[in-house]
Design brief:
By secondary structure, this protein is α/β, with parallel strands linked by helices. It is about 40% helix and about 20% strand. The chain is built from 29 helices and 30 strands. The strands form five sheets. It has an eight-stranded mixed sheet, with helices on both faces. Strands 21-20-19-18-22-23-24 form a seven-stranded mixed sheet, with helices on both faces. Strand 27 and strand 28 form a beta hairpin. Helix 2 packs antiparallel against helix 5, helix 4 packs antiparallel against helix 5 and helix 22 crosses helix 23. The radius of gyration is 37 Å and the shape is elongated. Bound molecules: aspartic acid (ASP) and magnesium ion. Aspartic acid (ASP) binds next to helix 7.
Length: about 800
């Protein structure tokens, strides 16, 4: 025999009701069942509401009529129940008062009506069903409103009653209600049908209790708040009990005990999703222990502070006595060993009263200044992690701090494994997601805003979208691009932009300031934020500091942030440090080549870097690698480079040496050198008269460059070639180094001389490596390698 219980929401809508009937039909074919029902939908609340209207002399009749005329009340004989209600309401409205006994009689009708309706609908479908009033056999104490069954009497009566029933009929039993020994109607407390079902299962020794609700089972966190919440497949009774203590409403401790007694498994199922297996709660030990998160948000924190309280005995007793006298129940309590203050959690509705009670109790101590502050913090929430002990709480905690959430108060229990945190209410959802992700090893969600969607930016976005699934599988990291912006407009999408972003951006992007992005991230509780600057803008870098201050890590392929004044460079680093944030820019030099990371590591490990030299620019590499060995005028080679897209639109940007200078400066600053851009000795390869003219004119005058480069080439010694290099030298232990960019001749056999195509090469000379530098060489330019490099930075950050 199985006991199957349906909650009020399972009966609330037409679809759910049909499902209930189908579920019963199917089950009855396989097994013997008894059904327990709650009142339909919000019936209990409505009946109570009408009671209040009657008591306070308001128009209860209209609302009661509406209730009577609810469509599902048609076609079933519930006249006697409605008459009882009518009489009770009338009486209450006459004497303008009611007690718990009357209230129980009123509320009880909801369950009686619902059992009659379900039984009659089943009969209509040809299923033999019979409405059963549990007041016939659930005999309780006199605790109206929240009665407890007398198990011995109830068991006997229940068994006798069920023996007398027609064995072929399915009993549709009222949940929630019982009777005192005198036969007065009682209720078993709100949500009491679960308790009824557990009692019935116990008394008739059922094999299983199946509780049909409107959710698929018990989750690791509320799925409305945490998208990645997982259904818990199996729970041990003890674990279920622990969850029940933290407010899982289906799992009242009262419900679990009768089941534990007879070792009857409880399955939580979903009426609207009958195929889901739900959560099974039983006496079977589960392997790893279960963890679940809960949030209480109708709470307030009371802070009680007194400088003169140290070591005085009896303060706490006075605090809690004062609260007890007002009937206020206290949740988390925290007191430091200095005894200077006490913080505790109460329900929001009790907060004012609690503070008032304390002010009264400590009136004199206020006067003597021993107590100096009693404050209420209202906008808070308590997050509890059930099944968590402190030994492994370091990671979730660090993840919180990294996301700029610092708990106001922190608490663990001595018995049981629970950790509770008090956080600001506005941060609760984000905090919950961060902790949940950490504990369950669920794909860590990285929320990315990409600025600049030109060649590099656009390629990056496509690369991220293409690899997202495989990264989630392999690394458990979910990359969510929630914003794509250019200098004017941004496209925002909380759950991530999709493959057709190039289309959407045309129609859906909106003007913005950086503050809007920050607010969007806050409002949507986005965690693990990264802002990526793929612009070439000197304006955008002004956003770096505000972004960092608001919880973003930074990545840029834009070099400007690292090459304007040293004071900005330093200020940014200090802001990053103060906010525990990172800034990665591997692509600033050598595109995707692992150069900056290598130099950082060498420097950090104490290796003395003595010199860095190399061909830093892909375009200049191509031009001189080609020009040195081909018998063609310089302008022809340059033209070819332009056609192949190897240069900037105006090739003077490359030939001026500024770009190489910037890269050199970035490397120098990695070594803690404090050089400014103006201090770099840069050889500009553009003759003076061609420096000032506009781009189109210059592009038409490329031949004017030929005599200058011809002369250089003619003077080359045998077996040498031309290379445009950047070189960092001098005493690199001092504050400033020597930074120089220049066109030099090198031996054809040297590493520099061997360079091909548009590759870059970097020679890093260090004390330990002596005359043989570490060489990093490869494609050092191009949108797709640069985008890959930025992608690498994203993954580096995501791993932290
Ligand atoms: N109908 C009652 C209530 O709403 C009992 C129950 O649903 O379990 O609290
Ligand atoms: Mg209910």
């Amino acid at each position: 025999m199985k006991v199957v219980k349906f909650g009020g929401k399972s009966l609330a809508s037409g679809q759910a009701f049909d499902n209930v009937i189908n579920i019963i039909k199917n089950k009855a074919n396989e097994d013997k069942i008894a059904v327990v029902v709650s009142a339909i939908g919000d019936t209990t609340d409505t009946l109570e509401h009408i009671l209040e209207l009657a008591k306070t002399q308001q128009d209860y009749i209209t609302t009661f009529e509406e209730f009577k005329n609810r469509p599902y009340h048609e076609n079933t004989d519930i006249k006697s129940e409605l008459d009882i209600l009518g009489k009770l309401y009338e009486g209450v409205s006459l004497i303008e008062d009611y007690n718990l006994k009357i209230k129980d009689q009123v509320l009880a009708q909801g369950e009686v009506i619902s059992s009659k309706i379900l039984a009659s609908k089943l009969l209509d479908q040809g299923i033999k069903a019979i409405a059963v009033d549990s007041r016939n056999f659930f005999i309780t104490d006199n605790n109206f409103g929240s009665a407890q069954a007398n198990e011995n009497i109830s068991r006997q009566k229940t068994q006798a009653y069920f023996n007398s029933l027609d064995k072929d009929a399915i009993a549709i039993v009222t949940g929630f209600i019982g009777a005192t020994e005198k036969g007065e109607t009682v209720t078993l407390g709100r949500n009491g049908s679960n308790y009824s079902a557990a009692l019935l299962a116990n008394f008739i020794n059922a094999d299983e209790l199946q509780n049909y609700t409107h959710v698929d089972g018990i989750y690791t966190a509320n799925p409305d708040w945490v998208k990645s919440a997982q259904k818990i497949e199996e729970l041990h009774f003890d674990e279920a009990n622990e969850l029940a203590n933290f407010g899982a409403s289906i799992l009242h401790a009262k419900t679990i005990l009768p089941l534990v007694e007879n070792n009857i498994p409880l399955r939580i199922l979903n009426t609207l999703n009958p195929n889901s297996k739900g959560t099974l709660i039983s006496g079977k030990p589960t392997t790893q222990g279960i963890k679940s998160l809960s949030v209480e948000s109708n709470v307030a924190l009371i802070q009680f502070e007194g400088r003169g309280l140290l070591g005085i005995v009896g303060i706490d007793a006075r605090v809690f006595t004062a609260l007890a006298n007002e009937g206020i129940s206290v949740g988390i309590i925290s007191q430091g060993s200095s005894e200077r203050g006490l913080g505790f959690i109460v329900e929001s509705k009790d907060a004012e009263l609690a503070a008032e009670a304390l002010r009264k109790e400590f009136q004199n101590d206020f006067y003597t200044k021993d107590v100096n502050n009693i404050a209420i913090l209202k906008d808070i929430a308590v997050i509890s992690i059930i099944g968590q002990d402190l030994s492994t709480f370091d990671k979730p905690y660090a993840a919180l701090v990294k996301n700029k959430i610092v708990p106001i108060l922190f608490n663990n229990t001595v018995t049981g494994k629970n950790v509770s945190l008090v956080v600001k209410k506005e941060e609760a959802k984000k905090a919950l997601n961060v902790i949940h992700g950490q504990i369950f090893g669920i794909a860590k969600k990285i929320n990315i805003a990409v600025f600049g969607h030109g060649l590099v930016g656009g390629t990056l976005i496509d690369q991220v979208l293409q690899s997202a699934t495989s990264i989630e599988e392999k690394k458990n990291i979910r990359l969510n691009i929630f914003a794509i912006g250019n200098s004017k407009k941004v496209l925002l999408s909380e759950n991530g932009i999709s493959n057709n972003w190039r289309e959407t951006i045309k129609t859906d992007s909106i003007p913005y300031t950086i503050q809007d992005i920050i607010e969007f991230a806050n409002q949507n509780h986005l965690e693990n934020l990264i802002a990526i600057d793929n612009t070439a803008s000197g304006e955008f870098i002004k956003n770096y500091i505000p972004l960092v201050q608001n919880g973003f890590d930074l990545i840029s392929s834009n070099k400007i942030g690292n090459t304007i004044s040293y004071s900005f460079y330093k200020e940014l680093r200090e802001t990053l440090k103060a906010n525990h944030k990172e800034y990665l820019y591997e692509t600033n030099v050598g595109a995707g080549l692992p150069l900056i990371d290598t130099i950082k590591l060498l420097h950090l490990s104490g290796e003395n870097i003595t010199k860095i030299k190399g061909v830093f620019s892909g375009s200049l590499s191509y031009i001189f690698n080609t020009y040195s060995i081909q018998d063609r005028p310089f302008s022809a080679v340059l033209n070819e480079a332009i056609q192949k897209g190897f240069t900037e639109p105006d090739p003077r940007e490359d030939l001026s040496g500024n770009d190489v200078g910037r890269k050199l400066l970035i490397l120098a600053r990695e070594l803690d050198l404090q050089n400014e851009f103006e201090e770099i000795i840069i050889q500009n390869l553009i003759p003076e008269e061609l420096q000032k003219i506009d781009t189109p004119t210059f592009l038409k005058s490329l031949e004017k460059l030929d005599p200058y480069f011809d002369k250089i080439k003619q003077n080359l010694k045998p077996d040498t070639v031309l290379r445009y290099v950047g070189e960092l030298s001098g005493d690199l232990q001092k504050d400033k180094g020597i930074l120089e960019t220049k066109l030099i001749e090198v031996s054809t056999n040297s590493a520099l001389g061997q360079l091909k195509g548009s590759d870059s090469i970097f020679e890093i000379y260090t004390e330990s490596y002596g005359e043989n530098p570490i060489i990093i060489q490869g494609a050092g330019a191009g949108a797709s390698v640069t985008a890959r490099g930025v992608f690498g930075d994203i993954l580096r950050l995501a791993d932290k």
